[in-house]
Specification:
Layout lengths: L1 H14 L7 E3 L4 E12 L8 E7 L2 E11 L4 E10 L2 E9 L9 E11 L7 E4 L2 E7 L5
Parallel strand pairs: 3-9, 6-8
Antiparallel strand pairs: 1-2, 2-7, 3-4, 4-7, 5-6, 8-9
Length: 139
C-alpha cells in the first residue's frame, strides 16, 4: 500500500505544471517573449499548434498554444523570423529536473513582435504549421 502512495505522488508531481512569469526582451523583430507555462493535459486529437493574433499599433501579440511531453517548466531562446508571408516563432522548452512523464501537456507562450510591413498569412511554431486566428479564445 505504501508503494502505491509513493508511485501516485511521483506521477502527480510529473504531470503537474508550473507557470513561469519570466519575460525577456527580444532581438530583431521580437520585442518581448513570455513563457506562460503549462495549462494541463493536451486533450485535442490534433497535435497542431494554435496561435491567436492581436494587433496593437506597431506591435502584434501572438499567443501560442501547443503540445509537448509533460514535465517542462521553462521556455528559453525565443525567436521570431518572417519568411515571405510565414511568421516562424520558436522557443526551446527546458525542465528544471530530469523527471518527465509519458503524456502530452498543453504549453503556452506569448510573443510580441514588431508588426511587419508584409502581411502574415501563416504561422509556424517550432517548425510545425499552426492554426492562426484573430481574436478568438482558445478552447
Amino acid at each position: 500500500m505504501r508503494r502505491t502512495g509513493v508511485v501516485l505522488a511521483v506521477v502527480m508531481r510529473l504531470t503537474a505544471c508550473s507557470k513561469s512569469g519570466d519575460v525577456s526582451n527580444g532581438e530583431g523583430m521580437l520585442r518581448e517573449f513570455k513563457y506562460v507555462g503549462c495549462e494541463g493535459d493536451w486533450e485535442d486529437e490534433s497535435f497542431a499548434p494554435e496561435v491567436l493574433r492581436k494587433q496593437e499599433d506597431a506591435v502584434t501579440t501572438y499567443l501560442v498554444r501547443h503540445a509537448d511531453t509533460c514535465g517542462y517548466d521553462m521556455g528559453m531562446d525565443p525567436g521570431a523570423t518572417l519568411r515571405g508571408e510565414t511568421l516562424k516563432l520558436s522557443y526551446r522548452l527546458e525542465a528544471s529536473s530530469e523527471e518527465m512523464a509519458a503524456c502530452y501537456c498543453e504549453y503556452r507562450a506569448r510573443f510580441k513582435i514588431a508588426t511587419p510591413g508584409t502581411p502574415v498569412r501563416t504561422v509556424e511554431v517550432n517548425g510545425d504549421e499552426a492554426k492562426l486566428s484573430d481574436g478568438e479564445a482558445f478552447r
